[in-house]
């Protein structure tokens, strides 16, 4: 599926993501995760702003919110206003975005590694963009640790990709383990399909993300 079709697919789902935000869907996990956000925050693939109700406003100076879907961004802008979060919005593709090194104190990504062309390269970029000692906070879904469920996820993945625009068969912990990030804590829920991850950048032995395109990773 090409990028324009994916953007349209997500834009068509924006109203549903807005309803989920209003219902505080997955709110307990979102709240625990983004409580650690501090300073200048990058929220990658912000969607309709489902994390905005949970940011610790007194600790956050600014959120830079990126998404490639204009409809999602429109909903996220309403959420930022409603919850009083100072936010700069960028309509951009996370697979081809760049920021100077150490641009952020915190990077938040929820339910997004399923969507990127190359999630490992995006995590390398997070490592590059987050300052040393900062927080990288992930809530991601992927391949279950339950064998039968994982088989079902593998076989249904092409269909789900066509319907939702994202993959349900990515091995999230394996991708995080292979990235530059230093894992602090991880929790796993729903038969190992959902992962809450607290990580920090590891600036030692850092790979320059721009060289990774010569060394492609295979992600469906
Ligand atoms: C499953 S939704 C999650 C939204 C939000 N993070 C949340 O937790 O509800 C995935 C979001 O990623 C965005 N997205 C997917 N691929 C992207 C890319 N390459 N660049 C920017 N945004 C992307 C979609 O538009 C959508 O808003």
From TrEMBL:
This is Class I SAM-dependent methyltransferase. Residues 41-134 form the Methyltransferase domain. The keyword Transferase applies. The keyword Methyltransferase applies. GO terms for molecular function: methyltransferase activity. The lineage of its organism: Bacteria, Bacillati, Bacillota, Bacilli, Bacillales. One of its GO terms (biological process) is methylation. It comes from Brevibacillus ruminantium. InterPro entries: Methyltransf_25, SAM-dependent_MTases_sf, Thiol_S-MT. Keywords: Methyltransferase, Transferase. It comes from the Bacteria.
